[in-house]
Amino acid sequence: xxxxxxxLFGPVRSRRLGRSLxxxxxxxxxxxxxxxxxxxGVTTLKTLERRDYVxxxxxxxxFDHWLAQDGQADCVTLAGGGEPTLHxxxxxxxxxxxxxxxxxxxxxxxxxxxxxxxxxAAAIKAEVVKATLSSWDQASFEQxxxxxxxxxxxxxxxxxxxxxxxxxxEYWLEVFxxxxxNDTSAQMIRIAEVARLIAPDRIHLNTAVxxxxxxxxxxxxVAELEEFAKLFNPVAEVVGVSQSLAQPQTEVITHAELxxxxxxLLQRHPCTASDISGTIGQSVSEVEKTLKDLLEQGALRLExxxxxNYFVANSPExxxx
Length: 321
Ligand code: SF4
Prior knowledge:
globular
């Protein structure tokens, strides 16, 4: 990854996706929700307005540059600083990626706009769509996500179901468990009932593993998540609790480039040194050396949470909304 990409990040490693090149189609932090547990940060523009938040031509120019210079990844993921389906032309971006590569195209969305036929028509161009379902009625929807006031839970679920009918690719749902909000068995059973109506191919059960924007959101324990997982059909996979992947060093990069990659990652969410090592594919000792320099330069700060040290970027570089 060269210095200075504005819309591309990574590739980052994930157990489910392998090496994933991220593409940000909206600036930090434009979203239809403002989830208190959001690891990207507070929503600065909560909106339902779909428009060209960033120029597609510039996104594709970066993608072409990345393909020419590197091009090594398992998939390309539309995700990042907010809700990608807010970009009015995200479907064109998916098409353009498909015209250039055979990489799997993944759309990570909160699903709130799938009630719009034009959003579904764009979403089904991807090979994998992952949407979030962490509530069971209007009140819980508002509590979990702090959605835009015009969003209704019933419409949201109707959109998720409509996508299932129209989408022939892999459809995943993510359920995010938040202590004190949706973490009782009775609440999870209600979410599982809604999920059953949507009939996804996979369900991922997740919880906060990094410091959230409110500094308060805690994790649900792994033991509880594993119990909740059995309530779902198909049985949910517990993810996100141990993100670190012991990865060997896979490529030689300069200290400056490693610093750029680390900052790019931390501008999206806080990580431990071991998370960074696994995600970027560099040794923990190299990562720690670079983190020390970045701390001394004031680019990062350290937050202690759940017995772990998380590195947090001090000044994310928001793209201009
Ligand atoms: S939907 Fe995702 S990006 Fe938007 S506020 Fe919630 S967690 Fe953050």
